[in-house]
Amino acid sequence: MEESERMRAIVITEFGDPEVLEVQDLPRPHPGPGEIRVRVRASGVNRADLSQRRGRYPAPPGWPEDIPGLEYAGVVDAVGHHVERWRPGDLVMGIVGGGGYAQYVVTDASTAVRAPRGLALEEAGAVPEVFMTAYDALFRQVGLGEGETLLVHAVGSGVGTAAAQLARASGVRVIGTSRSREKIERARDLGVDVGILASEDWPARVRERTDGRGVDVILDLVGAPYLQGNLQVLRGGGRQIVVGVPGGSRAQIDLRLLMSKRATLRGTVLRARAVEEKAALAAEFEARVVPLLEEGRLRPVLDRVFPPERARQAHEWMEENRNFGKIVLLWD
Question: Which of 75, 175, 263, 326 is deepest in the core (most CB within 10 A)?
Answer without folding.
Answer: 326
